[in-house]
Amino acid sequence: MSLTTILFTALLGTWQTRSATSLGANDISKIIHGVDFRESTKPFLKKLPFLPMRVQLNCSCAREIEEIRDQLKYEVSQRIEMLGTIELFISEIFNLKTLVNSKVVSSPVEQPNTIQATAAAEFEEIAFSSRLSHHLTNLKPDQIVIFDQLLTNIGSAYDHTTGIFNCPVSGTYQFFVKILSGFNDKVETALIVNTIEVTRLYSGAQHAHGSSTAPVIILLEKGDQVFVKALYQKSSHVHGVYSTFSGYLLRPI
């Protein structure tokens, strides 16, 4: 609601509710139009102190006009004060933005890819894969299956002459063992860490070859030994080429 509407409503309401008044409709119009509301707020406030005196001479509603004048003056002063506060906040935000930008330029934050690349560079990659180059027959219990044909040996942790993986770095590792039995035969093997059996594999079939695969994820300490061994006397035949042993370091600790 505009200032003109507020003032006119107050004057007209007072004039209508009183039985006797010396102020007519034309007088009200003259009073309202006597103030230029298109001017800025401060010039308008300068005119307000003279308004009650003029109204008091012509009507009995000077008190209401005085109250409206005080209220308008208070609201304008509040808005001027609020404007100053907003300008202060804007200045503080600008200063803070300038400070943050200067910190970013002087101390750039490493990107996630850069951090990962740096962490990966600090650790040696460990991975191997080997297979049997020939058939193994007449295996004895606890005999280590030596996968003698190296395919990959990053870090040189797997010894293809003994069939043993020697853990060079403590961490989480994944291993894969695949055993194919001889034709119309069976073989039982196990993945061993030091002296502990981690998992077993049974491979066998009638009038065919039998295959078994075991993927495992295990936590190793530096110096642990991992290998595959036969379990029973009847574990007599491991088929070459198709039987493999692989592993790699997932994450060091």
UniProtKB/TrEMBL annotation:
<dbReference type="InterPro" id="IPR001073">
    <property type="entry name" value="C1q_dom"/>
</dbReference>
<dbReference type="InterPro" id="IPR050822">
    <property type="entry name" value="Cerebellin_Synaptic_Org"/>
</dbReference>
<feature type="domain" description="C1q">
    <location>
        <begin position="121"/>
        <end position="253"/>
    </location>
</feature>
<protein>
    <submittedName>
        <fullName>Caprin-2-like isoform X1</fullName>
    </submittedName>
</protein>
<dbReference type="GO" id="GO:0005576">
    <property type="term" value="C:extracellular region"/>
</dbReference>
<keyword id="KW-0732">Signal</keyword>
<feature type="signal peptide">
    <location>
        <begin position="1"/>
        <end position="19"/>
    </location>
</feature>
<dbReference type="Pfam" id="PF00386">
    <property type="entry name" value="C1q"/>
</dbReference>
<dbReference type="InterPro" id="IPR008983">
    <property type="entry name" value="Tumour_necrosis_fac-like_dom"/>
</dbReference>
<keyword id="KW-0964">Secreted</keyword>
